[in-house]
């Protein structure tokens, strides 16, 4: 059974096994600010979701990650719908996310109603990566 709740300090060790893109200190701040969630199936953690505020006023999903064996079972879609509903209840009219052009997540987001809304090119040796597709959804 799907569940999603705010992450707690007790979730940090699990979180860091899935998310290698965040420093522990930053994760602790996100937990304090209620900007990260644990996704569960029958009370067992199976994934994570975190976000920032783009321009300090636009929810920007920065990470959703499910354990491999839990993918393609609807948990990601349910987590996104729950997050979007919460953002709408907080008064945000729009949410954003991004994904690299070489990742399949772009198809997941489009299926959920996200629209391409530009891109970011990171052509600097220290952070070079494929084109980053920016996606947006009106709530």
Give the SSE map:
Layout: E1 2-6, H1 12-18, H2 24-32, E2 36-41, E3 44-54, E4 58-66, H3 75-89, E5 94-100, H4 105-111, E6 115-120, E7 132-138
Parallel strand pairs: 4-5
Antiparallel strand pairs: 1-2, 2-3, 3-4, 5-7, 6-7
Q: How would you sum up the global shape?
A: globular
Contiguous low-pLDDT stretches (5 residues minimum) are none
Main beta sheet: strand number and arrangement? Answer: 7 strands, mixed
Helix count equals 4
The CA-CA distance between the termini, in Å, is: 25 Å
Number of strands: 7
Structural class: alpha+beta
In sequence order, what are the helices and strands, one letter per element? EHHEEEHEHEE
- Major sheet strand order: 1-2-3-4-5-7-6
Radius of gyration: 15 Å
**What is the residue-mean pLDDT, rounded to a whole number?**
96
Helicity level, as a percent range? 25-40%
Q: Hey, roughly how much beta strand do the residues contain?
A: 35-45%
